[in-house]
């Protein structure tokens, strides 16, 4: 459990490192309220996504559905997420994961919000679920690690792709190949905190202040300047999540 003053210090460090804004997702019944509070405490620079991670899909009962429906309408809530499928850990049964995914995709459509999508070893089930909603679906496949052929499918659906600290790892040529296949106007940079800290912080807890290192690695792969990647990925976030950092919206 991270103490509130530690969170405040982490947000401060991010702003000092040049990060303009943060979108942070709730992932389960235990962290929903705390995440909403974070959005209220730092309303100009922290926006919130509300959702149930596939790990906890079995927790989607009637009362949590009501809490999510109510949270989706609150100020500062810009997305439904994390939602998706995770067949690597299979912490919730596949059927529960698919049911939670569909219900939350419906919630996003009704709330006119984009989604933050988690995928691990599950694209074969995830892609058809997303494709059925092509046209109305908006969102990002976060911390993505699929090959360029799958990147094409994601971009064709109109979705964005989130790139994490893996792009800085020495042996992650596959991630750099994937990044090279993403149009800059569809690319977001992220932490996946506390996981996947970029080099030279690898193995330690990740935090938003490290995200410029991800941007720098993306810039190198795409042959763009770091400033260009910073301003364009910030614009992408504000466009996708329909929010403005530095404003209380
Ligand atoms: Zn995830």
Characterise the protein shown here:
The structure is a single chain. With 249 residues, this protein is of the alpha/beta class. The chain has 2 domains: 27-121, TIM Barrel (Alpha-Beta Barrel), CATH 3.20.20.140; 138-243, Alpha-Beta Barrel (TIM Barrel). It contains 9 helices and 7 strands, in the order αβαβαβαβαβαβαβαα. The chain has helices at 4-16, 32-41, 62-72, 94-111, 123-131, 148-156, 173-180, 211-222, 226-240; strands spanning 22-25, 46-50, 77-86, 115-120, 139-141, 160-163, 187-189. Strands 1-2-3-4-5-6-7 form a 7-stranded parallel beta sheet. Strand 1 (22-25), helix 2 (32-41) and strand 2 (46-50) form a beta-alpha-beta unit. Helix 8 (211-222) crosses helix 9 (226-240). The mean pLDDT is 96. Bound molecules: zinc ion (ZN). Zinc ion binds next to loops.
Count of distinct structural domains: 2
Bound molecules: zinc ion
Q: What is the subunit arrangement here?
A: single chain
Shape, per Cα inertia axes: globular
Instruction: Report the sheet-strand fraction.
Output: 5-15%
Gross CATH architecture of the largest domain: Alpha-Beta Barrel
Fourth-level CATH superfamily of the largest domain: Metal-dependent hydrolases
Biggest sheet, in brief?
A: 7 strands, parallel
Strand order of the largest sheet: 1-2-3-4-5-6-7
By DSSP (H or I, 4+ residues per run), the number of helices equals 9
């Amino acid at each position: 459990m991270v103490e509130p003053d530690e969170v405040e210090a982490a947000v401060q460090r991010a702003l000092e490192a040049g990060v303009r804004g943060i979108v942070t997702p709730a992932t389960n019944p235990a962290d929903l309220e705390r995440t909403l509070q974070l959005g209220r405490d730092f309303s100009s620079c922290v926006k919130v996504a509300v959702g149930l991670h596939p790990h906890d899909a079995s927790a989607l009962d009637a009362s949590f559905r009501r809490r999510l429906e109510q949270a989706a309408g609150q100020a500062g809530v810009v997305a439904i997420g994390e939602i998706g499928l995770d067949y690597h850990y299979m912490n919730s049964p596949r059927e529960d994961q698919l049911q939670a995914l569909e219900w939350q995709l419906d919630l996003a459509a009704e709330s006119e919000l984009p989604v933050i999508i988690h995928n691990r070893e599950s694209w074969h089930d995830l892609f058809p679920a997303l494709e059925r909603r092509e046209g109305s679906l908006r969102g990002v496949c976060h911390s993505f690690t699929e090959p360029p052929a799958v990147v094409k499918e994601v971009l064709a659906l109109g979705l964005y792709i989130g790139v994490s600290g893996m792009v800085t790892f020495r042996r992650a040529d596959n991630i750099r190949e994937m990044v090279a296949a993403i149009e800059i106007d569809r690319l977001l940079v992220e932490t996946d905190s506390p996981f996947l800290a970029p080099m030279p912080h690898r193995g330690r807890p990740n935090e938003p202040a490290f995200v410029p290192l991800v941007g720098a690695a993306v810039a190198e792969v795409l042959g763009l300047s770091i400033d260009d990647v910073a301003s364009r990925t910030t614009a992408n976030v504000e466009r996708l999540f329909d929010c403005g950092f530095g404003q209380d919206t």
